[in-house]
Design goal:
The chain has a single domain, classed as Double Stranded RNA Binding Domain, CATH 3.30.160. The protein is built from 1 helix and 6 strands. The strands form 2 sheets. Strands 5-2-1-6 form a 4-stranded mixed β-sheet, covered by helices on one side. A two-stranded antiparallel sheet has the order 3-4.
Length: about 100
């Protein structure tokens, strides 16, 4: 099992642009399971590396960081966007 995951985040449902999706993230995989606290009921873990999320400009920079620090990693490449060209006039074509 890899120690880290390298990926490019997808845009959220309420985002129209792609501004926050151009960078690459390196996130650590969980090393221990999360358990609920018996008194309060909050879910927590003793693994603090799950809180770390590093941003990189390129995929190669993220891979270089993981290799430099001796981390095994998994790279998830983003799906390519399919752009369908549209014309404003297509809004007024009657389709039955």
């Amino acid at each position: 099992m890899p120690d880290a995951r390298i990926f490019q985040p997808a845009r959220t449902a309420i985002q129209s642009g792609r501004a926050k999706t151009r960078f690459w993230l390196l996130e650590m995989e969980p090393r221990s399971r999360k358990d609920p606290d018996r008194l309060i009921g909050w879910v927590g873990s003793d693994d603090t590396t799950q809180q770390i999320s590093l941003k990189f400009e390129t995929k190669e920079a993220a891979i270089a960081y993981a290799e430099r620090n001796g981390l095994t990693y998994q790279v998830d490449d983003p799906h390519k966007r399919i752009v369908k060209p549209k014309s404003y006039a297509d809004n007024f074509i009657r389709r039955f």
